[in-house]
């Protein structure tokens, strides 16, 4: 079949793309409002864009005519934390996507324990196996909906003991959750290891 995107509205295109670009990692983001409310929301348009310094990108859309609280908070404070959630946290990740008024903290609403960060003021989730303290580097807007691509530098990694072996994360032990189309999630299936291929070193270290 053929589908002409110029004949579709944004919502129908979104449903198509989120079913095609799968599975997607989930950035589970805490951010702090100007009034001190700790916000929590998941974003599955998420990837890394640089290794030195480490930089991550998330795409934040709108809720109605306004931008989501996460975008407001990050642009206001320039600090946030991106978490990677594992399977035991799947329900909490999903429930944190409910749109609350800005004065409601999803963290408090869900009863999630938090810890102080070392280099940003935003608190991190104690239960998440990975938390990455971030500072805003750049914000770009795309498309008719003006979705905001927010790029931040990771200034501190927090990784659960036992997940890193010889400098690499044990992905199976991490057991991350991924997003697919609709209110559906996935976990890692069979992991296939192939022969190492030659690649030009990314740096001297």
UniProtKB/TrEMBL annotation:
Key words of the record: Flavoprotein, FMN
InterPro entries hit by this protein: Flavin_Rdtase-like_dom, Split_barrel_FMN-bd
A Pfam family it matches: Flavin_Reduct
Cofactor or coenzyme needed: FMN
Flavin reductase like domain ranges (all copies): 19-171
Gene3D superfamilies documented for this protein: Electron Transport, Fmn-binding Protein, Chain A (2.30.110.10)
SUPFAM superfamilies: FMN-binding split barrel
Family: Belongs to the flavoredoxin family.
Record-given protein name: Flavin reductase family protein
Organism: Bradyrhizobium zhengyangense
Source taxonomy: Bacteria, Pseudomonadati, Pseudomonadota, Alphaproteobacteria, Hyphomicrobiales
